[in-house]
Specification:
Length: 302
């Protein structure tokens, strides 16, 4: 629920007057909700989606306002440059309205706030779907390239992503199957090809150790007996607690037990702890994807 105070309402009015006073040329941008008219080459962008911030940063675009914390180490420099405007889930509407950005980019965790944010400035819902992550990521690169007049740079980023995917496919080819697990304190859940992390299976032709895993936002809750029975050649592990800075048992500690230790993956040193913030918080950003692929290439080739 969005609670709008009297001060926030006044700030909304101020932002509306400022935006009306400075009409700009517009360009049609493809979003998760279809094409939307946005100001061409906006000077001041506020972004609430970390995948969007990731890709805009890769294009060389400086975002004026971001949520805090960002969680992702390679984007931490932005916290000293960009204005804080709330969190990933709860925008600070008053601070945002006073900033009066030319454009707001939302998506993922902030997608439910799009309509409220659109009262301040044109707002794009750039949510990336887990079951079409790579296709959506490329579409967002194109969209931001069009938005900022950086089509050549966008094409370069997409070509680099395609090359990295090709390299990763070659690295995993013939190396066996894999099970993707997320550890959340002492609990674990599994992710299959249809899940938010399933692009690792789909895009890399990486066989699943267990087929038919339930598609759920936080994965299918499983036991250590499940992992032992699956006996994967590789374990790809996401540490949710580490991703969001929580204290408590880490993924390595959680998995260090006799059942997991009996798997081929554990015995052969084939346990890959992917960068948690990249895949969990910034998933779909071009830097996130290429970073995860680099980890997998190094592990499978090594």
């Amino acid at each position: 629920m969005n609670r709008i105070t009297g001060g926030t309402a006044a700030a909304f009015a101020l932002a509306a007057m400022l935006s009306t006073a400075s009409a700009a040329e517009t360009v049609s941008i493809e979003t998760a909700r279809g094409p939307v008219e946005a100001p061409e080459v906006p000077a001041t962008i506020a972004a609430f989606d970390v995948a969007a911030i990731d890709t805009l940063d890769a294009l060389g675009v400086t975002v004026a306002a971001v949520p805090q914390p960002l969680y992702v180490p390679y984007l931490e420099d932005l916290t000293g440059i960009a204005q804080p405007v709330g969190s990933l889930f709860e925008p600070d509407f008053e601070a945002l309205a006073i900033l009066a950005p030319d454009l707001i980019v939302a998506g993922g965790r902030s997608s439910s706030q799009v309509d409220a944010l659109a009262r301040i400035a044109p707002t794009l819902d750039m949510t990336i779907s887990g079951d079409t992550l790579i296709a959506d990521a490329k579409a967002r690169i194109d969209a931001y390239g069009t938005l900022m007049g950086l089509e050549d740079k966008a094409a370069e980023l997409k070509a680099g992503l395609d090359a990295k995917l090709t390299q990763a496919r070659a690295a995993v080819d013939g190396k066996g199957d894999a099970l993707i697990l997320m550890a959340n304190g002492p609990k674990i859940s599994a992710y299959g090809a249809g899940s938010r992390f399933g692009w690792l299976h789909r895009e890399l032709a990486l066989p699943e150790a267990v087929e038919g895993v339930d598609v759920q936002t936080h994965g299918e809750a499983v036991s250590f007996e499940f992992v032992a029975e699956a006996d994967p050649d590789w374990l790809i592990v996401v540490d949710r607690g580490a991703a969001i800075g929580e204290e408590g048992a880490g993924a390595a500690e959680t998995l260090d037990n006799q059942l997991v230790a009996g798997t081929k993956a554990w015995k052969n040193g084939h346990v890959i702890y992917v960068d948690p913030a990249s895949i969990y918080i910034a998933g779909g950003g071009v830097q996130s994807i290429t970073g995860i692929l680099d980890q997998l290439i190094a592990a499978f080739e090594g």
